[in-house]
């Protein structure tokens, strides 16, 4: 089975998935919307196909998304994984990959969709923060939840210290979620993801 991972930067979640034991699945390609994304070089060094598709070279969001779909589909993916991919996707894109597109978000959704989640969780006085793996739908940071992990928010936390604690959990739950989805262990039932019978 083929996995295509989309990144915009560092790519530490992508690295965690590449290094995970995924059975008969493999990361066929890593694609970035920023040619200088550090994760691209990391993947290329490991012999993984890489593609850089600069979103600034396209007239609008739909033109970029169509080029991105063509680049992704070259690798015949069974699963497309967003890992720190910082672009809002069109409904055409999310419909094309319906039920085979995952994202990780650094909050306990449905709390704190969008950016700057750790600062917002601290300012709201949350005692728990965390991360969420979910199927992607047209609505940003929504969609059926596959997995979550929670961590404590400590009195002395700043956004960076909380982000580091959450990121460790991201690296644990994202490869596991990818494995479970590819193995067909899960089924989408409305907004819920449940064990397949
Ligand atoms: C992660 O915290 C992810 O949840 C968020 O952006 C960060 C990406 O980190 N959307 P990396 O590129 O996977 O290291």
TrEMBL record:
Q: Where is this site: Raises pKa of active site His?
A: 141
PROSITE patterns documented for this protein: GART (PS00373)
Entry's Gene Ontology molecular function annotations = phosphoribosylglycinamide formyltransferase activity
Q: Where is the Formyl transferase N-terminal domain?
A: 1-178
Chain residues that bind (6R)-10-formyltetrahydrofolate: 61, 86-89, 103
The record's EC number reads 2.1.2.2
Q: Which reaction does it catalyse?
A: N(1)-(5-phospho-beta-D-ribosyl)glycinamide + (6R)-10-formyltetrahydrofolate = N(2)-formyl-N(1)-(5-phospho-beta-D-ribosyl)glycinamide + (6S)-5,6,7,8-tetrahydrofolate + H(+)
Q: Which residues form a coiled coil?
A: none
InterPro entries, per the entry:
Formyl_transf_N, Formyl_transf_N_sf, GART, GART_AS
Pathway the protein contributes to = Purine metabolism; IMP biosynthesis via de novo pathway; N(2)-formyl-N(1)-(5-phospho-D-ribosyl)glycinamide from N(1)-(5-phospho-D-ribosyl)glycinamide (10-formyl THF route): step 1/1
Q: What is the protein's known function?
A: Catalyzes the transfer of a formyl group from 10-formyltetrahydrofolate to 5-phospho-ribosyl-glycinamide (GAR), producing 5-phospho-ribosyl-N-formylglycinamide (FGAR) and tetrahydrofolate.
Protein name from the UniProt record? Phosphoribosylglycinamide formyltransferase
């Amino acid at each position: 089975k083929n996995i295509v991972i989309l990144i915009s930067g560092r790519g530490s979640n992508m690295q965690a998935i590449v290094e995970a034991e995924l059975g008969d699945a493999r990361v066929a390609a890593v694609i970035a919307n920023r040619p200088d994304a550090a994760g691209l070089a990391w993947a290329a060094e490991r012999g993984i196909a890489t593609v850089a598709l600069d979103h600034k070279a396209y007239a609008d969001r739909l033109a970029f998304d169509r080029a991105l779909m063509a680049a992704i589909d070259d690798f015949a993916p069974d699963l497309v994984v967003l890992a720190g991919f910082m672009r809002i996707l069109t409904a055409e894109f999310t419909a094309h990959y319906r039920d085979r597109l995952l994202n990780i978000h650094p909050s306990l959704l449905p709390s704190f969709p969008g950016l700057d989640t750790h600062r917002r969780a601290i300012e709201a006085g949350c005692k728990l923060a965390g991360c969420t793996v979910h199927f992607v739908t047209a609505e940003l940071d929504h969609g059926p939840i596959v997995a979550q992990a929670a961590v404590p928010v400590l009195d002395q936390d700043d956004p960076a210290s909380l982000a580091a604690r959450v990121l460790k959990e991201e690296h644990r739950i994202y490869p596991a979620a990818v494995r479970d989805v590819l193995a067909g262990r899960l089924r989408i039932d409305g907004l819920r993801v449940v064990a397949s019978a």
